Amino acid sequence: MEANNNRGFTSNIGAILAAAGGAVGLGNVWRFPYMLGSNGGGAFLLVYVFFVLLIGIPLMMSEFIIGRRAQRNVVGAFRVLSPKHKGWMLVGIFGIVCAFLIYAFYSVVAGWTLNYIVLAAGGRLAGQTPDRVTQIFSDFTQGSFWPLCNQFLFLALTGLVVMMGVQKGIEKVSKILMPVLFILLLLMCVRSVTLGAGAKEGLSFLFKPDFSKITGSCILSALGQSFFSMSIGMGAMITYGSYIRKEDKLFNTSVWIAVCDSLVAILAGIVIFPAVFAFSMDPASGPELVYIVLPNVFNSMPGGVVFAVVFFLLLGIAALTSTISLLEILVAAAVEELHWTRRRASLVCSIVVFVIGAFCTLSFGPLKNMTIFDSTIFELFDKITASYLMPIGALMLTIFLGWFMPKAEVKDELSNGGAIKARAFELYYFVLRYVAPIALVIILITGIVG
Ligand code: TRP
């Protein structure tokens, strides 16, 4: 069957690494610290971890169940699993729209990594004062030509990899490079927590929850961040689920991915916040946080230039494995549903994303004053997708799987046709049917109202 061409990871570890590669990305190293910094520090972390455990893992399992059962992309999965009620396909189409929007603003920040690799390699960040480092960032992002070039380059790179088929190249690359990124983050943690005075303050900002900071918007942002970081709520994991072998355990796979993903985010926090306080910067400075804090950390390390180049290179690669997963959602759908060639699908989708994404890039410069609800286009895309669209998508997914699909089918898929004991099935099913949807509705309403 055409839809099954080229389908299938060859091992469980391959599936875990590929999905974790898609999950671990700028969301962990760039978005997590900046969201935490602007939304109450330790309180945010606590709520975030709570959501990963309560909703994140069950939801990831649910997407895997849908994807593996249907053996299809995000749109096709609903078509196959619900042949009589075509309306469910809208959930898949919703996911596609979401993927376009996320990819549009994600590629902006991914492009920044390219610029920072060049800046770091040219020694242009070395020896600069914190103020000057901040200036370099705003000079760069306020331009039009270079940020657009970088974004274009990143989209092209992603497009090429996806065109060639993901499995061989990128899986191998991420298997080696993701652990390297992890080790590098560990090294940087050591440097950051030994920065002296500010370090302690930074760690307590990160780990000591101030419960008064748990507001409606803190909760909504933490929920959104957990979804964004785990790539759930819009069908990315449906696409990946369709590649997972029938004998792999979906629960274990999900837990592994969640653990890797959260660990990287927390490590990034341990690198960023001690440095933020040591260099007297503002933890709530927004999307630029990582890009204005890290160069100062490198400047205070022996061999900082080398570390900086390697770090931004790896961050770029982490971003690439994620942009690949974003484009793969779109391409898999276009190939299987519209019968386009992989090449055509990659090309057309990338061009569309560039056209939308250019507005996001320019919203740091020429379009800075074009705001909607007090947010620039970039901020709007970032916030709307993570805080609203992904939770809404998640809600529809839980209703589909928990209330529409027969329970026996869900259990059959999760237990690999009864081959393994899905011991916690009843608990999972309870969360899927009641806890997750009710929590999502409450959070969405309080987030919107408050
Ligand atoms: N989770 C990725 C990150 O943290 C980003 C990402 C990749 C994503 N694919 C996605 C987010 C699909 C939402 C949906 O960087």
Element order: H for helix, E for strand: HHHHHHHHHHHHHHHHHH
How much strand content do the residues show? under 5%
Query: Which CATH first-tier class would you pick?
Result: Mainly Alpha
Rounded to the nearest angstrom, the radius of gyration is 21 Å
Reported by name, the CATH topology is Hydantoin permease
Assign a percent range to the helix content: over 70%
Shape summary:
globular
Number of strands: 0
- Major sheet characteristics: none
Strand-helix topology:
Blueprint: H1 12-23, H2 26-38, H3 42-70, H4 74-81, H5 89-121, H6 130-142, H7 145-163, H8 167-193, H9 197-207, H10 216-230, H11 236-241, H12 250-278, H13 289-299, H14 304-337, H15 342-362, H16 377-404, H17 407-414, H18 425-449
Bound molecules: tryptophan (TRP).
Tryptophan is lined by residues 22-23, 25-28, 102, 228-229, 231, 234, 236, 322, 325-326.
Note down, in words, how this protein is organized.
The chain has 450 residues and is mainly alpha-helical. The chain has one domain (4-449): Hydantoin permease. Helix content is 76%, strand content 0%. It is built from 18 helices and no strands. The protein has helices spanning 12-23, 26-38, 42-70, 74-81, 89-121, 130-142, 145-163, 167-193, 197-207, 216-230, 236-241, 250-278, 289-299, 304-337, 342-362, 377-404, 407-414, 425-449. α4 runs antiparallel to α5. The longest helix is centred in the last third of the chain and has 34 residues, at 304-337. Mean pLDDT is 91; it is low at 1-5.
